Amino acid sequence: MSTKNVRETALEILEAIEKNQAYSNLLLNQTIKKNQIPVKDIGLLTELTYGTLQRKMTLDYFLTPFFKKNSKIEGWVQILLRLTLYQMVYLDKIPDRAAIYEAVEIGKKRGHKGIASMVNGVLRSIQREGLPSLEEISDPIQRLSIETSHPIWIVNKWVNQFGLKKAKEMCEINLTAPMQTARVNLMKISREECIARLELEGFEVERSPIIPEAIQALKGNLAKSNVFLEGLITIQDESSMLVAYALGVRENEVVLDACAAPGGKSTHIAEKMKNTGEVISLDLHAHKVKLITENAKRLSLTSIHPLVMDSRKALEHFEKETFDKVLLDAPCSGLGVVRRKPDMKYTKKEQDLSQLRVIQQNLLKSISPLVKKRGILVYSTCTVDQEENEDMVKEFLAENPEFEEDLTVKERMPEAIRPFVKDYQLQIFPQDFSSDGFYIAVLRKKG
User: Fold this and answer.
1) In the list 109, 114, 266, 393, which could disulfide-bond 281, CB 3.0-4.6 Å?
2) Per 3-state DSSP, what percentage of the chain is helix, strand, and coil (rounded to 5)?
3) Helix (H, G, I), strand (E, B) or coil at 328
4) Rounded to a whole number, what is the distance in angstroms from the first to the last CA of the chain?
5) Least confident of 64-73, 197-206, 258-267
6) Residue 30: pLDDT band with limits 50, 70, 90
7) What is the pLDDT of residue 22?
């Protein structure tokens, strides 16, 4: 595959994301498989797709002054200009002339001479005159929004909740590539042996500094390793591994994972219980429950029982006070994982959050009666939004006096995490450990 094809492919992916609101990570993987893209080109294709998406608002800010007033620009041409400018501004290895030449060729091939010369004109003008300065934006929130490509409503929310400094750190780290991490299946292999096995396969990995059973991939996709196929590791973000610690599961307990797909947390819980007891893993969608089943099978975990079920109806299926531990990893805005899914920044709307709150409230209401007396309820999300996190839990505690804050959670957490635990809650920001933004609250039913 020539570099030209890589750029055309990136353009097609970006177009599909914009038109069909397709998920960037899924679409990229499907395209790589379907077109059998050579390994040497995957890095560039990924960089071009994610990079252009990540910085979409900044690139548009740079481009706009170079368009003729009132000129109508077709969607794909706008994307082609963004894609090319991304290479010119952010990629050192690609000479400007090569990027511009390829853009003009694509313009000719997909459009006509007029489009090709417009593309050439805009890019040459930028080369000549330089980029408009972001310093010209006097409002600090507006500037942060444009320079880090985060819609203004998100920046406003974060500045109000966490202050400008923390909001800026979060917006900036969201522009960097996330690291792949994995959890070692300690029932089958030690972390050291696992690292040695992966190194023999040609991967570069190191120990996670925060989670005792985790590793970080410096080079190579661990999901393609034999170690993965043999069920010795699970791809999972370090932040979400903290949930199993928060639950503090013991052998032979009965645990409910209420929104479990694709099964990362369920399998971690089962491994911590050494495949004893029972983990009931629910999810609304059959195709997602299939993923839980496949993951459990790959890891040889027989204690996991996946079921297709809406957890809001769990009380119709289970007796009250059935479970020692209950995990609700609630559907949320996902604002903690923007780095993994950059398209999410532009598709999420502020009103989505209030609809999610209703779902979160209903889920808590439905599953909390299933917790045994003195049992544990963990509420977690992959967002950093206080309304979905602290506010939601405070409201639940006010309405459900049979639950109290579990102040012992700190003792169960890995050493590196303890300073971040506030009473019964834990909020990890993406900039804390370069992991996903994640929230955990631990409640205990009074006995």
Assistant:
1) 266
2) 55, 15, 30
3) strand
4) 65
5) 64-73
6) confident
7) 67
CA distance 248 to 325: 9
Q: Looking at this protein, which amino acid is placed at residue 260? A: A
Superfamily in which the 3-132 domain is placed by CATH: NusB-like (1.10.940.10)
| Rounded average pLDDT over 198-214 | 97
List Cα–Cα distances, 261 to 34, 257, 341, 373, in angstroms: 25, 9, 17, 27
Question: CA 64 to CA 34: how far, in whole Å?
Answer: 35
State CA 395 to chain mean position distance.
27
Measuring CA to CA, which residue among 285, 221, 241 is closest to residue 28?
221
CATH number of 180-235: 3.30.70.1170
Quick check: 2 pLDDT over 70?
A: no
Please report, for the chain, the start and end positions of each structural domain, with discontinuous segments joined by +.
3-132, 144-173, 180-235, 238-445
pTM for this model (two decimals): 0.93
Topology of the domain covering 238-445: Rossmann fold (3.40.50)
> In angstroms, what CA-CA distances link 403 with 84, 136, 151, 394?
55, 52, 37, 11
Query: pLDDT tens, 171-190?
Result: 999 999 899 999 999 999 99
> Count of CB atoms within 10 A of residue 302's CB?
12
pLDDT at 38 over 90: no
Binned at pLDDT 50, 70 and 90, residue 4 comes out as: low
Calculate the CA 437 to chain-centre distance. Answer: 8
Nearest Cα residue to 61 out of 126, 127, 153: 126
Residue recorded with tokens 């999410």: 344
Nearest to 263 by CA among 285, 234, 284: 234
Q: Tell me which residues are annotated as active site.
A: 382
Which residues are within 8 A (CB) of 148 and not within 5 positions of it... i.e. 6 or more apart? 58, 155, 168, 171, 172, 174, 175
Report the chain's mean pLDDT, rounded to a whole number. 94
